[in-house]
Design goal:
Chain A is an alpha/beta fold. Chain A is built from twelve helices and 16 strands. In chain A, the strands form four sheets. In chain A, strands 6-9-7-8-10 form a five-stranded mixed beta barrel. In chain A, helix 4 crosses helix 7, helix 4 (99-113) crosses helix 8 and helix 7 crosses helix 8 (225-232). Chain A binds chain B through residues 29, 305, 307, 309, 318, 321-329, 332, 334, 336, 338-345, 348, 351-352, 354-355, 358-359, 362-363, 366-367, and chain B through 29, 305, 307, 309, 318, 321-329, 332, 334, 336, 338-345, 348, 351-352, 354-355, 358-359, 362-363, 366-367. Strand 16 of chain A pairs parallel with strand 14 (323-327) of chain B.
């Protein structure tokens, strides 16, 4: 009985921050400024990526300890998709400032309410296929950061020499499955990625982090004091009714920087938990293709109805019950968002950003 | 004054029959069962092909002498697109029976109202770019058939060795620009088409005909008596209130056959007027491509907005102000009809018929 109470007590101090402010421009036009990737039922499961992220963390932390940080523009979408989430659990950024200010605000906000808090921070738009493994990994991570003054990142056991991800090189093991971080690396070229894979020392950087609120705030003070100072000025109002006005005023003054650059690559108390729970960042059409079930012609058809002839290796992303009849098309992205149709070879998907720019130049915001 | 009266008197007996019952399945999905090709603003001019056909004949025959023959299903579309056309000028076929029964009915109907009538019969879905030349050609044709017991067809001066058209070989000249027909030919292969072009004796079969009502009815009796007999049974009611009930009952008993097979290839009094007024039957996506203005990348963009990269030779047919962003696509048809998207190499467009069949098998009438 004492043990159970203790577990519940520990659990009550565990929080999740779901980062949900991205714009998903690499998936234009299927992902749009007013309906980014994380709000779309991207895999045809009936739940958006955000909803899947919420569902996934629900068994791990108390419902009332789940927070979503998003852009003001998406407040209504978050409320609509997560009706169980109380309004106070949605933190609305007045402007986009990358992940470090987002994570800092969430940490200060949570610590103001619960000084003992530990936090898992995770993106809203990733795919995780093995949910039981995910739960176990997060629970192990919480236990580690609660007993160490540690910044913990999850490193995914790589299954292929992927050039689209950053890698984490592990150092000495501190307990089974948790190591010191030796280096963070940028996206490698294919030759280097193959070397990474062979050594067994390199893991994909997942963008999922765990730490105590006080540990990350302390690290912010040390490694990114400009950001910490912004929130230090708000200590009196964070967690109170005055918080919204403070954030409106002060959040935009934060520099725009990722948590990796701002803290993780500088701090010495950084650890990696190596995990293997079927993860993809779904960062590109090609990764979506790789992670989606294929039909007998090796096409990915998302939700849609496709009649294909001599066509293989394509990804079709079309909303509703639209029919696609396609002949002689191989290895293309075909994405239809109603008012925009994209047809682009998978190998050329980096040019989508240029298309978005050109569409903006030529037609203003109409098709963004 | 006498001369003018005489001209007006002659003009008052001239009729036009616009055949408007086609289903346009080669242009699926842009052309649909409920909105076939002839009703679409196919060239982005602001007028449908039917409206353009009506506009074109209006200077030539009296407005009240223009008839449209169409399927019952398209009655509302015809009324909407040609609001000046009185209801009595729309002949509604209860079922599709190809051109011979359509032409026979129209001839019997017109002759019942005006025994001296001469008629130009023309499709509703062809392109003619030189309207003044067209007017002159039709007027010359009327004059010829009014003074001869002749079945006159218009033969287009060929500009290329087209394999998509039937050809008419001319015989002896009977007056400038009008010859006896020597042979009708089926669509030739490319080698034969080249020979045709070199000889100067072969003209494209336009499907535009002129004759007196009594001449075509006489030819029907001689060469297609099964069809003539059907309408002979209706002589008492054609042109009266009883016509509709008669047609509902009897029209479906007609054999389904083209006017070429039923009459033109059998009769001896068949003549061809050789013309040159910028004609295309717009029968295929490729012919639409050939006849449409291209942008600087040699793409045909119909009405729509296209951002193209490394893409040439395509035809984009998309309704409304949808944006197409396309990369690395060459010589394709991209046709979007809202609920169906077709992507098909121009060279494979004959497979569209199979796609329509497969869509019907799999989804019923939903996408037809």
């Amino acid at each position: 009985m004492t043990q159970i109470t203790t577990n519940q007590e520990i659990r009550s101090h565990r929080y999740c921050v779901i980062m949900c402010g991205g714009i998903g421009s690499r998936f234009w036009p299927y992902s749009r400024a007013n309906m980014p990737k994380q709000f779309i039922d991207f895999l045809g499961t009936g739940r958006s990526l955000l909803q899947m992220s919420y569902d996934r963390i629900l068994p791990v932390v108390p419902k009332e300890n789940i927070l979503v940080v998003t852009n003001e523009a998406y407040a209504a979408l978050v409320k609509e998709q997560l009706p169980d989430l109380p309004a106070r659990s949605i933190l609305l950024e007045p402007t986009r400032r990358n992940t470090a200010p987002c994570i800092a605000w969430a940490a200060y906000h949570i610590k103001a309410c619960d000084p003992q808090a530990s936090i898992v921070v995770m993106p809203s738009d990733h795919l995780i296929t093995r949910e039981q493994k995910f739960e176990e990994s997060i629970l192990r991570g919480f236990a580690f950061v609660e007993s160490h003054e540690a910044l913990l990142t999850l490193g995914i056991n790589p299954s292929r020499p992927e050039t689209g991800y950053g890698y984490i090189q592990i150092g000495s093991e501190v307990e089974p499955g948790i190591n010191k971080v030796k280096t963070f690396t940028e996206k490698p070229d294919i030759e280097l990625a193959k070397v990474f894979l062979e050594t067994g020392e390199f893991f994909w950087n997942s963008g999922i982090f765990l730490w105590k609120a006080e540990t990350i705030i302390k690290a912010m003070h040390e490694h990114s004091p400009e950001i910490a100072q912004v929130f230090d000025r708000g200590l009196a109002v964070l967690g109170t009714e005055g918080e919204t006005a403070f954030i409106e005023e002060e959040f935009p003054t934060c520099m725009s920087i990722s948590i990796d650059f701002a803290v993780m690559e500088k701090a010495s108390n950084v650890y990696v938990e190596t995990v293997d729970f079927g993860w993809s960042d779904l960062g590109t059409w090609s990764s979506l293709y790789d992670n989606s079930p294929k039909n007998s012609s090796a096409n990915v058809t998302q939700n849609c109805r496709v009649l294909s002839y001599d066509s293989t290796g394509n990804i079709f992303a079309v909303r509703g019950d639209k029919l696609i009849a396609v002949s002689g098309l191989n290895d293309y992205i075909v994405a239809d968002a109603g008012d925009v149709l994209l047809i682009c070879p998978k190998a050329e998907e980096q040019s989508i950003r240029n298309m978005v720019s050109d569409a903006k130049l030529k037609f203003g915001d109409k098709y963004l």
